[in-house]
Amino acid sequence: MNSYQRQKLRKAVLSNIVILIDSREQKNQHIIDFLNDNNISHIQKKIDFGDYSFKVKKYTLESYFAIERKNSLDELIQNSVAIDDTTNNKINRIERELLRAQESGAYLEFMIENNSYDDIFENNYNSLMSINAVLGKINKYKFVYDCNIQFVEKNIGEYILNTCLGWAINTLAYSEKIEFKNELLKELGVVKGVVK
């Protein structure tokens, strides 16, 4: 696919994208403000895994792709070792979320706000977990569950939108994973033969 075709596809997707926000997502007004300020449609609904996904026209892609947002490195660490209120057993909420996505055949991307990798190396978090243990957990998530973990210090709304756009464009252009790909490309005005 040449750059003109990619630009055409990007413009078509951007004009028709609706960001899906999980109805259980909290403290995300800054993200909603970004979407509103940029005239990006969004709706709140229950999403089976992750906090954000998207649809293009009538085609929902939440069973293929989602973004899990953590407000901070501290939240990631706390969710890595939490106590189940009903059983008092230790559970790993992160792995539970990753397993749900993996079982669905979906790709889950993690975005950690307000921190960077430097914060790990500088022990700039509120946990007794060692630096090596934190890095070990992050690496396990990345390699065992094939997910990406991004640290986003600011502009997370823009990062969420561009990650959804990038996933949509690359998947529609180069992958056969989505069974309704050809129908969606036709509705977007992108001819199947041009994209292959």
How many DSSP helices?
Answer: 9
CATH topology: Rossmann fold
Query: What about the largest sheet?
Result: 4 strands, mixed
CATH architecture group name: 3-Layer(aba) Sandwich
Shape descriptor reads: globular
State the assembly state of the protein chains: single chain
- On the 0-100 scale, what is the average pLDDT? 89
Q: How is this structure best described in words?
A:
With 196 residues, the protein is an alpha/beta fold. The chain has one domain (3-188): Rossmann fold, CATH 3.40.50. Helix content is 47%, strand content 20%. It is built from 9 helices and 9 strands. It has helices spanning 3-16, 29-37, 73-80, 93-104, 117-121, 131-144, 156-174, 181-187, 192-195; strands at residues 17-22, 41-45, 52-56, 59-60, 65-70, 82-83, 90-91, 107-113, 148-152. Helix 2 (29-37) links the parallel strand 1 (17-22) and strand 2. Helix 2 crosses helix 7. The longest helix is centred in the C-terminal third of the chain and has 19 residues, at 156-174. The chain is globular and about 55 Å long.
Give a concise summary.
This protein is an alpha/beta fold.
Sequence-ordered SSE layout with sheet pairings:
Layout: H1 3-16, E1 17-22, H2 29-37, E2 41-45, E3 52-56, E4 59-60, E5 65-70, H3 73-80, E6 82-83, E7 90-91, H4 93-104, E8 107-113, H5 117-121, H6 131-144, E9 148-152, H7 156-174, H8 181-187, H9 192-195
Helix pairs in contact: 1-7, 2-7
